[in-house]
Amino acid sequence: MEEDVNYEELPGLSYNKTITYINDFVIKSVHFLNKFSTNCERKLSEIDSSIKRLDTIMNIFEDKLSSIEGLDDIDVPRETTSTTTTTTTTTTTEENKEEENKEEEKEEIQETSNVVKVKDDLRYRKWCQLVMRGVPKVAIRMKMEAEGLDPDLLDDPEQPAPPMTDEELKKIELMKQQEEEEVDESEESEEMSDGEFSD
Predict the structure, then answer these.
(1) pLDDT tens digit sequence for 61-77
(2) Biased-composition ranges for Basic and acidic residues (predicted)?
(3) Cα(first)–Cα(last) distance of the chain, in Å?
(4) Which terminal CB of the chain, N or C, has fewer other CB atoms within 10 Å?
(5) Rounded Cα–Cα distance for residues 167 and 165 (Å)
């Protein structure tokens, strides 16, 4: 049998005990949350580093594939096994769709091959090389803005470069002429030095 207890007559908990219980609960909760947050940050940093590593590997792989000529014309053979007539019809339709998709991709690749990328453009090539060497983007951004170029294009160097204006085309032609003159001068100086040594 349960005894009738009048809780109003029972003495309450002491003030010191309630404070110690609350403090203990708060301390344990804070320790748990700190440990949980540090573990989450550590795992996120590991995931971020692995994603960056995979990104660099993919970029290297894409550059190596792009350097090989004639990959677009290669057709990969497929092995299709069908048990019933329904499966044969579905596989043929899927193959037709895949061939159509391949043809569309080839057309897109041919169209994009004529487009100059930001990293290959003469206006942005040196800036992309500076970024790859570890130069701070803040300094590069200021210099590019001073030259009238868009620094946001360095975030994605694989995207197509904006069209050149007439003034930019003239500048690039002058730069090419200067480079050719420097090459000719260096060749002449080498020939002169070879002639002096031969004498």
Answers:
(1) 888 888 777 666 666 55
(2) 167-178
(3) 126
(4) N
(5) 5
pLDDT band for position 35 (cuts 50, 70, 90): very high
Q: Phi/psi class of residue 134: alpha, beta or left (left: φ > 0; alpha: ψ in -120 to 50)?
A: left
According to the model, what pLDDT value does residue 1 have?
45
Q: What are the residues facing 117 on neighbouring strands?
A: 160
DSSP assignment of 84-122 equals SHHHHHHHHHHHHHHHHHHHHHHHHHHHHHTSPBTTTST
Check: CB of residue 92 under 8 Å from CB of residue 122: no
Tell me the per-residue pLDDT of 167-180, one tens digit each, with 9 for 90 and over. 777 777 777 777 78
Handedness of CA 134, 139, 144, 145 (dihedral sign): positive
CA gap 21, 27 in Å, rounded:
10
Cβ of 114: how many Cβ atoms within 10 Å?
Answer: 7
